[in-house]
Amino acid sequence: MPRVVSVYFPYLATDRIRRHGGHEVPADQPLVVISKNGSKRWISASDANALKLGLRIGMPASRAQAMVTNLVMVDASPAEDAVALKRLALWALRQYSPVVAVDGTDGIVIDTEGADHLKGGEELLISGLVNMLRAKGLTAKAAVADTWGAAHAIARLTTETTTVVPIGGITQAVMGLPIHCLRLAPDTVHDLRAMGVETVGELAAMPRAPLTLRFGPEPGRRLDQLFGRVAEPIEPLRTPELVEVSRNFQEPIGAPETIEKYVRRLVGQLTAKLEKRGLGVRRSDLVIHRVDNTTQSLRAGLAKPVRDPTRLSKLLCDRIEKIDPGYGIEKMVLVAIMAEPLEEKQVASSLIEEAAVDYTPIVDILQNRGQRLYRVTPVASDVPERSVARIAPTAEETGADWAAKWGRPLRLFARPEEIEVIAVLPDQPPAVFTWRGKRRRVKRADGPERIFGEWWLTPRERQAVRDYFVVEDEIGERYWVFRAGDGVDMATGSHSWFVQGVFG
């Protein structure tokens, strides 16, 4: 089932100016963009601060200046806005899906069929997308639905930052929306409203023949696209620097073995082009165009630049069963979305030293099946839960190591678990503790090992301390426990006890 994400940038022009426009505008100062035609000047874009002060799109610039004294006014640059939007679409193309396109002047549209699982599902995909854009200084809203039209409408007309419309839930989600969400011409919207038609539900209830006779086929076509009765294909964004090969078929194909044969041929052509440019592919997209005017796609990511046709073919052909040819495939396109310089290295033979084992092929296979792989590396921190970090499975060794002289448990919990303890303060280990509902009597203990708070990271930890003990219960199980605080001054911690890990 196709799923489409629409990303809407309500303040694209002003966000671009704050980021790259060369204007140092404080975040709390209102900013508007001014368009002009002859002597007429009006507001064509505004940030949230200006809107809160009563300014509106289309308002004369002179009136806006009279209303707000410290208003910053910048001339409009539609060309620069379009370049910024295309740059965002290319970023989404590399990060999220093979099928991404610019959606009007204020958004992008993404076909995420088969790609959402790589981000943990649709909720995590769009929330992560919006958060990443916010970190870049861009305000965005996102919606995912079965059709482009529904996702486009909901992203622009709901107050929620992210919205996921359940599969098959378009009707319930859009029937109450105003008709201008259908992307109709302004004159058509005006005439429909003059007839008393305000919502999508009211328009959908009208007989199709009189509607077409009065307004032409466009309202009916937009309704059909909104509800998924007519396909609205997304033409993927492409740039000249992308390496791309394609194959058109005079007769549609659909058999898995035929698809695999032509995928391998396309991979051979792509790697030949990459070789001429001295490049290797890091991420490739196979886009399938079906005869019913719909598309499907497969994405293959690699841990390092590769130009090996056998390896790339395997990553794509292993997932051919995910392709539904429908009534047949009329075109296949293979694109190197991410390509990097690839230097050929000569491997010196040796009778003594063994060649380094390249385990990236198995990493590529597992990651393209949706597995989220990582390695852990030591971090220079005395706080145990901060002493490790996740890195890419193929990342270079950091060279860091744990500097602690005391023993550490083999199993370290991600977060300390609170326990009930009977102990003599301030320096004695627990005599008895209860963890996960089971009471344990301590037979042996070693400690304390004092760890101080990292005040340079968190000012609240300036006085914080932890006292760690290695304790052994009556059946020989050993635990790493600590008390938050020094046992005397409450400013150093709550004096609650926790278990941090288990030995053996």
What can you see in these coordinates?
The protein has a six-stranded antiparallel beta barrel. It has 504 residues and is α+β, with helices and mostly antiparallel strands. The two termini are 48 Å apart. Strand 10 and strand 11 form a beta hairpin. The chain has three domains: 174 residues, Reverse transcriptase/Diguanylate cyclase domain (Alpha-Beta Plaits, 2-Layer Sandwich), CATH 3.30.70.270; 99 residues, Dna Ligase, domain 1; 93 residues, no CATH class. The model has no long low-confidence stretch (mean pLDDT 88).
Keywords:
single chain; 504 residues; alpha+beta; Alpha-Beta Plaits; Dna Ligase, domain 1; 3 domains; 6-stranded antiparallel barrel; 5-stranded mixed β-sheet; 14 helices; 20 strands; globular
